[in-house]
Design brief:
3 helices
Length: about 90
């Protein structure tokens, strides 16, 4: 079977996941189901990206200790755009 858009996304299965629970198929029920299923898919993506970042941070060398106050002037404690704190 060749790989197609429909087969890759399993559209037949995906589009049949919305099962009405009300007797009369309420007008907004389909909207509710699709909206909340999409939210759950986005949450899954956020967790996937978070796991990836955690793995990347675990592999990154530890930065040398720095003092955040170096970005501020000692007298006013204001951020200084000329500081090296924010530069790479």
């Amino acid at each position: 079977m060749p790989l197609t858009y429909s087969s890759y996304l399993k559209l037949d299965q995906l589009l049949n996941l919305q099962e009405f629970r009300s007797k009369d198929r309420e007008r907004d029920e389909l909207l509710f189901l699709i909206t909340h299923q999409v939210y759950e898919l986005w949450f899954k993506q956020v967790l996937h990206e978070t796991d990836h970042l955690i793995r990347l941070l675990g592999k990154a060398p530890s930065p040398a200790p720095s003092t955040p106050s170096s970005a501020f002037s000692p007298s006013s404690r204001r951020w200084s755009p000329n500081s090296t704190f924010w530069r790479r």
